[in-house]
Amino acid sequence: MAVKVYNTLTRKLEDFEPIHGNRVNMFVCGVTPYDHTHLGHAKTLIGFDVIAKYLRYRGYSVLYIQNVTDVDDNLINRSKQSGVPVPDLVEKFFALQLEEMGALNMDSVNIYPRATEHMKEILDQVKGLIEKGYAYESNGNVYFEVGKFPDFGKLSKQVLDKLQAGARVEVDENKRNPEDFALWKAEKPGEPSWDSPWGRGRPGWHIEDTAMTMAYFGEQYDIHGGATELMFPHHEAEIAQAEALTGKEPFVKYWLHTGVLNVDGEKMSKSLKNFWRLQDALEEYDPGVIRFYLVNAHYRSPIELTEESFEESKQGYERLVETVQNLQFAIKAQARDDRTERDDEIEKSARETIQKFEEWMDNDFNTREAISHLFMLSTKINTALKKGLTKETLEKALSVYDTIGDVLGLFRKELEQDMVVDGLMEFLVEMREKAREEKNFEVSDEIRDRLAKIGILLEDTQDGPRWKRR
RNA sequence: GCCCGGGUGACAGAGCGGCUAAUGUGACCGACUGCAGAUCGGUUUUAAGGGGGUUCGACUCCCUCCCCGGGCACCA
Is residue A310 domain-resident? Predict the structure, then answer.
């Protein structure tokens, strides 16, 4: 069975067949580092992180590139406001972004190229587009003449005549036509600039992506991802630049778009000031909960962020984590020697869960459906655990969480082990058990309370005491 | 105005031309329990925006209307 992906370009679910056999070239628009990242950025980047990881799980060799825009209007404006030079802004916010996304286990990107590192390719492309008659120079600016590229709008299904250029942004008077977009912007005083055949200036918004992907992937590649809001004009402009330049289509075989994150019925964005910084979210919630919240929705669906939906994710994720911990505890403390029918049933369910996981992930990366099977398995495991399972079964069951967790980026912390802490805890738990045997609940409760204060939850179960981090 | 999505229980949110319409959360009851915590079982809502069409059969396909979101040259 092949992996199927929903291609925005064709609006159809298609069999995924990379251009070069097993090799997948994948590019996703990164977040411009001029400010803190918020949960909306995370939704998109986590969405593609899962896609890259699943394709690798399926045996593809994925080269995943995410660009870093290190010169643009937002950076320049922020620099003027704050007095911090553009490169310093980039360093600061990009480092923060890596740290925060890293906390969410977003670690599938191979290369983070920067626009300014690809100035030569950018200039070559702009020159090429002028030579081919698709672009023109005007007062040190270079514009792509959209009217010369009849396919413009094929991705977003826009009809050029019906668009209202200047609906939100004023039309530049240097343009021949309002719909033309900038490939190169003439220098303004005090702004970063580079030498070019048209005088000093800087790249337009769309050109860095095509410059980079052609440098790394060649003229055509497999997957381009981004949020739906970037579909027009950004992705449309990329197609125009690339296909006009090379004459080859499609520039990108599969276009994938993520739904946006809404707050109170509106898109989370910096301009609407309704954003929730990742930094702040990470202070309030476990990274696993945030990750779970984001992967427990289909990547293409928009999601509505509410206090309740986040709490719900917390409860749900903790139940899955609980099951992982129950399994770990059982392996250490209560594995049975004799196999029973329960072992057969759990092992069968474990196999089926993996099978369903692959089936649903093959179907346009349906993480939501995949996770629902993990919940069903968890209920079965927790029920079976009351009567006990063999070590072999327990380990097989645990491996399901390991395998799926790897792709979805969940349970990572829980699956790590620390021998020193384990040893210390074993000792403390033994001391407390002695106190309990003597009905000295004052001491036993104090041990538990003190542990609770440092974030360790001690529980008494039918099979003895156990502990876990909260 | 134009283009693109979407409308499913209390809430979140999947799938499917026919099955009992997943799964999760919440609420209630119960089991377990020194307490706490967790887990399990049960219960829980006449659940498909309105209208029309295709079909033996429509939540699913088509048309239309209403409502919500995204985009229209800033943005994940």
Answer: no
ipTM entry: 0.91
Domain limits for position A441: 419-469
DSSP state of A352: H
Distance CA A217, CA A27 (A): 9
Question: Total structural domains in chain A?
Answer: 3
Q: Is A300 inside any structural domain?
A: no
Instruction: Give residues 336-395 of chain A lying near strand B (Cβ < 7 A).
Output: 363, 366, 368-369, 371-372, 375-376, 378-379, 382-383, 385-386
Phi-psi region of A27 (alpha: psi -120 to 50; beta: other; left: phi over 0): beta
* Cβ–Cβ under 8 Å, residues A357 and A370: yes
What's the first-to-final CA gap in chain A, in angstroms?
40
> What tens digit of pLDDT does each residue of A236-268 get?
999 999 999 999 989 999 999 999 888 777 788
Nearest Cα neighbor of A27 from A225, A220, A205, A208 is A225
Report the distance from CA of residue A255 to the C1' of nucleotide B62 in Å, as an integer.
27
* CB-neighbour burial class of residue A423 (10 A; exposed 0-12, middle 13-18, buried 19+): exposed
**B strand bases under 7 Å from protein CB:** 1-5, 11-16, 22-26, 32-41, 68-76
Strand B and chain A: which residues 134-163 have CB closer than 7 Å? 146, 152, 156-160, 162-163
Choose one of A414, A436, A457: the last residue of a domain: A414
Residue nearest to nucleotide B1 (CA to C1'): A162
Residue A189 CB partners (closer than 8 Å, separation 6+): none
CB A438 within 7 Å, strand B: no
Same structural domain, A347 and A244: no
Q: Indicate whether A49 belongs to any domain.
A: yes
In this structure, are A409 and A443 located in the same domain? Answer: no
CA of A52 to C1' of B76 (A): 17
Structure tokens at A125: 């492309």
Q: A92-125 b/e with 16+ CB inside 10 Å = b?
A: ebbebbbebbebbbbebbeeebbbbebbebbbeb
A461 CB and strand B closer than 7 A: yes
| CA–CA distance, A126 with A195 (Å, rounded to integer) | 13
Q: In this predicted model, what pLDDT tens digit does every residue of A151-176 receive, in sequence order?
A: 898 898 887 766 655 555 556 778 88
The helix (H) or strand (E) run that includes residue A255 is: strand A252-258
